[in-house]
Design brief:
single chain, 160 residues, alpha+beta, six-stranded mixed beta sheet, two-stranded antiparallel ribbon, 6 helices, globular
Length: 160
């Protein structure tokens, strides 16, 4: 999937629920070097890693002031779990009652965070739809947009 997909969460919530993963260690002669950017992991979701970024001004203007006071972070989601989710949607053999482990984790995370946003911006960083929703509505929107990402306008869904 060639898209930006992630969460916007209060900084304190991120620090309480995500940990810094050990960086890859490389040896160059006698030197030991940590390679790559620091990544975060969440113990309740295997196969995912997250990179934290400041929330851009464009996105901040679409978030509530009370939420912004929590100095939120944008966490991009990457890893095997995202690839498996895209494949699960592409296979198309799920029933409406079926859920993927990523969706279950997102629902639990949204409930725990209380407020935040889910961002999905397809290739070219398109972000054309902004809305407030509950967890089930966000999962339904995510399914639709990830499955048909070429035609997706992208979205920022606020919760809480």
């Amino acid at each position: 999937m060639n898209a930006s997909f992630g969460l916007i969460l209060p900084r304190d919530f991120v620090f309480a629920n995500f940990t810094v993963a050990a960086q890859e260690i490389r040896h160059w002669g006698d030197e030991v070097i940590e390679a790559g950017e620091p990544r975060l992991v969440c113990a309740s979701l295997e196969g995912a890693f997250f990179q934290a970024f400041p929330v851009t001004g464009f996105v901040r203007q679409h978030l509530a002031n009370k939420f912004l006071s929590g100095n939120p972070l944008y966490l991009s989601i990457n890893g095997d779990i995202v690839d498996a989710y895209v494949q699960w949607l592409a296979d198309g053999d799920m029933r409406a009652s079926d859920t993927h482990v990523l969706e279950v984790w997102l629902l639990d995370l949204m409930a725990g965070a209380g407020s935040g946003a889910i961002l999905f911006a397809p290739e070219g960083d398109r972000l054309g739809t902004f809305f407030d929703a509950n967890g089930a509505e966000i999962v339904a929107s995510l399914r639709l947009n990830v499955k048909d990402s070429w035609d997706s306008p992208g979205f920022l869904a606020r919760f809480g």
